[in-house]
Specification:
- 39% of the residues are buried.
- With 450 residues, the chain is α/β, with parallel strands linked by helices.
- The chain has 3 domains: 123 residues, Gyrase A, domain 2 (2-Layer Sandwich); 123 residues, Four Helix Bundle (Hemerythrin (Met), subunit A) (Up-down Bundle), CATH 1.20.120; 151 residues, Rossmann fold.
- The longest helix is centred in the middle third of the chain and has 25 residues.
């Protein structure tokens, strides 16, 4: 049941702060039309799904701005409530004046994510779709945008609803068995229930398997460029970016801190991190601090680009061994100066960050290493996020426990407990359970006006 404050009329600027041609002030709630009518003098009256031109005027009759007003009647709106959208000029001062005007006339300032929260509470979206709104806004690549749109369409929710409905059937049968103990469950029915439980568990586990792919789509592939001082790490960063982002010098140790930039490779965001050079020892405390940071960066990397000066003999491997990322690519830089014979048989790509030689092969190799992120034709319609994965992990464990109970022909009460736990965990993904605290966590990361 909606809390009292959720019945207020809310207002917020729905466009980014700054100067632009147009800004949008959005209102939602039962009083939104009344607030708009109190400040708007138009060429016609407000009507559902109709754009009306006119002026916004303050209490003294002074014109604040000429605007376009679009009104919607609930439930045929984004939030499911009566809403009004005021398109005004995009200056920071005029936008603030428009917002202040509607706030003085009965609206209150919206909280972060409150419009989308109301859409969820009014049944316009499930939780996976609500989260997809921010995924669409924050998408950094075509693949991420496509996955977000799939989730916004409700495809992930539909997959879960199908699994949940099948689980409800199993639980209903077990509950009936508990309520009517004199009706012993026959072995064939027990086998069928177990098979259905396994099928649901496998479906949940398939969704869980997309969590890492979802992280890479949303956050980007964290790609650390590492190697000895003066190997050409900063030059590689500049080449891959296509502009001079990092200072480059013949003097070793120029880079003391990590530099991060994001590029798009093969439709996937790649976060390039240029790091301080690594050597066995140094007397410079600032360089030592930079090297320590490099080692920390290596510990969180999804992909390692190890850059070496191939014109010189090999001088040892990067520290870290098995703790280094599984995805690794050795780049034999300065190949234009000739490659030392010590690098023969070590693999790697011959490149020259000075001339650009081999850079096309580097990009191709990186794309191949990060392949597997779901795109068109993937096994699932959307990649789950960390919250989904946590819920699904609990559901899968409970389902496997229920499977064991059914296999052992244990008391049905134990099976029912596991099945209920799985059902509740799956329901948390889409919001089909009592998750008031959960809503606060999810919508707190939304921007104001969304």
């Amino acid at each position: 049941m909606a809390m009292a404050y959720e019945k207020d009329t809310i207002a917020a600027v729905a466009t980014p702060a700054g100067t632009g041609a147009v800004a949008l002030v959005r209102l939602s709630g039962a009083g939104s039309w009344g607030v708009a009518e109190a400040v708007f003098r138009g060429k016609g009256r407000l009507a559902a799904r109709r754009v009306v031109y006119g002026n916004l005027v303050d209490e003294e009759g002074r014109i604040i701005d000429d605007v376009l007003v679009t009104a919607f009647r609930g439930p045929g709106s984004y939030t499911g409530e009566d809403t009004v959208e005021i398109a005004c000029h995009g200056g920071m001062l005029v936008t603030r004046r428009v917002l202040e005007l509607v706030l003085r006339n009965g609206a209150r300032a919206a909280e972060a994510g409150e419009f989308t929260r109301r859409a969820f509470l009014n049944g316009k979206l499930d939780l996976t779709q609500a989260e997809a709104v921010m995924d669409v806004i924050g998408a950094q690549s075509d693949l991420a945008l496509r996955a977000a749109h799939r989730q916004l369409e409700g495809r992930l929710g539909n997959v879960l609803v199908g699994l949940r409905d099948e689980l409800v059937e199993v639980l209903a049968h077990v509950e009936a068995w508990i309520d009517f103990p004199e009706e012993d469950i026959d072995p064939d029915t027990g086998v069928v229930l177990r098979e259905k439980t396994v099928r649901v568990a496998e479906g949940v586990e398939r969704l869980m398997a997309t969590a890492e792919q979802g992280r890479l789509l949303r956050e980007g592939v964290r790609t650390v460029i590492a190697g000895a001082p003066n190997a050409g790490k900063s030059s590689l960063l500049n080449r891959m970016l296509g502009f001079e982002r990092a200072l480059v010098s013949e003097q070793a140790g120029t880079t003391r801190d990590s530099i991060e930039e994001t590029i798009n490779l093969g439709g996937i965001p790649v976060r390039l991190v240029d790091t301080a050079g690594l050597r066995s020892e140094t007397a410079d405390p600032l360089e030592a601090a930079g090297m320590a940071r490099t080692r920390r960066e290596l510990g969180t990397a999804d992909l390692l680009l190890e850059v070496v000066d191939a014109s010189q003999p090999p001088a040892g491997e990067l520290e870290g061994g098995e703790s280094l990322p599984v995805r690794r690519l050795l780049l034999l830089n300065k190949a234009d100066l000739g490659v030392d014979s010590g690098w023969e048989g070590r693999g790697g790509l011959r490149v020259s960050c000075r001339t650009g030689e081999g850079m096309d092969e580097v990009v191709k190799a990186v794309v191949e290493l990060i392949a597997g992120v779901p795109g068109e034709g993937g096994d699932v319609d959307a990649a789950v996020n960390a919250r989904h994965a946590g819920c699904l992990r609990r559901a899968a464990a409970a389902l496997r426990a229920a499977e064991g109970q059914l296999a052992a022909e244990a008391a049905p009460e134990f099976t029912a407990l596991d099945l209920r736990e799985a059902l509740e965990a799956m329901g948390e993904v889409t919001g089909r359970t009592d998750v008031e605290d959960l809503l606060g966590v999810i919508f707190a990361r939304f921007c104001i006006g969304k």
